[in-house]
Write a structure and sequence with these properties.
single chain, alpha/beta, Malonyl-Coenzyme A Acyl Carrier Protein, domain 2, Alpha-Beta Plaits, 2 domains, five-stranded parallel sheet, four-stranded antiparallel sheet, 14 helices, 9 strands, 14% strand, Malonyl CoA-acyl carrier protein transacylase, acyltransferase, Malonyl_CoA-ACP_transAc_FabD
Length: 328
């Protein structure tokens, strides 16, 4: 679809597309769709040529899929394969894109701000730098449930002041759900404090502590790669992670992608932005249904659709086209 048509189509809908981040990956992802739609494997072949290793093999076998340097390009490619299939099947162009952490890169490719080849190379490097920034076992992440954002922030500040290292609020995912990240011992300390205040704390199985101050060395190196990558202003507005706002020029995009490595993901604010702009339907464009499940909790969302299988994508296509009067 041409850039102008993409932009025009996006103005006439109440739908937003959400791209998931790390944690949504699973072995054999998109296998069923690949059997029926050649474009799935074609997209993986295109991305594999850019990075120099077989992303489809990793996606299907699960080999190295838990290593962030490989997880990130595989997930991004899966999301773009689904986006291309959505358009091929006649799906609407959304009014907004938003991506959770890594998913912001998927949004940039879908909005034609960045090529798939450049994006997969960037996120492969991003994963390597993130892994190198904190030695294995020294960082951790955990989900804190049932407490106010301010309570979690205060506990992180107290732990960081008292201990060696840092722990920060990394993802504001929903009301009463904040993910923390930082030095492993301090993450454990905040988990204990949360439980003492009648909250819940769940350790997350991740290899790096994302979106916290421990990632600043990675961000400094990553900024150099971003400066050498062509980035255009998106044809469909992208709500950025760090401020839940839409960039107005390409330099803001680069700055946001750098800061995103060590600043919090403002997902709650992103959903509030969609509410303010009359979004009623969201489509989760990637493996799994983490973001669509979060969206279902929101009263302004009429329906949230994951589209990682043939039946799911068909349901979403029909429901949205029907709701928006594009079919009878």
């Amino acid at each position: 679809m041409s850039a102008k048509r993409l932009e025009q189509a996006a103005q006439a809908t109440k739908t937003a597309f959400l791209f998931p981040g790390q944690g949504s990956q699973k072995a054999t992802m998109l296998a069923e769709l690949a059997e029926q739609f050649r474009g799935i494997e074609d997209t993986f072949a295109e991305a594999s040529a850019a990075v120099g290793f077989d992303l489809w093999h990793i996606a299907q076998s699960g080999e190295k899929l838990d290593q962030t340097a490989y997880t990130q390009p595989v997930l991004l490619t899966a999301s773009i394969a689904l986006w291309r299939l959505w358009l091929e099947l006649g799906g609407v162009v959304p009014k907004f894109f938003a991506g959770h952490s890594l998913g912001e890169y998927s949004a940039l490719v879908a909005a034609e701000a960045m090529t798939l080849a450049d994006a997969v190379k960037l996120v492969h490097l991003r994963g390597q730098l993130m892994q190198d920034a904190v030695p294995q076992g020294e960082g951790a992440m955990a989900a804190i449930l049932g407490l106010d954002d301010a309570q979690v922030v205060e506990m992180c500040q107290q732990a960081s002041q008292a201990g060696t290292g840092f722990v920060d609020a990394a993802n504001y995912n929903a009301q009463g759900q904040v993910v923390i990240a930082g030095s492993a011992a301090l993450v454990q300390q905040v988990m204990a404090a949360a439980k003492a205040q009648s909250g819940k704390a769940i350790a997350l199985p991740v290899s790096v502590p994302s979106h916290c101050r421990l990632m600043q060395p990675a961000a400094e190196k990553f900024a150099q790669a971003l400066e050498q990558t062509a980035i255009e202003l998106p044809q469909v507005p992208i709500i950025q992670n760090i401020n839940a706002a839409v960039a107005t020029d390409a330099s803001q995009l680069r700055e946001a992608l750098t800061a995103q490595l060590y600043q919090s993901v403002q997902w709650t604010g992103t959903m509030q932005y969609l509410q303010q702009h009359d979004i009623q339907y969201v489509v989760e464009c990637g493996p799994g249904n983490v973001l669509s499940n979060l969206a279902k909790r929101l009263t302004f969302i009429e329906k949230a659709f994951p589209i990682d299988s043939k039946s799911r994508i068909e349901d979403a296509l029909h429901a949205i086209l029907l709701a928006e009067g594009k079919i009878a």
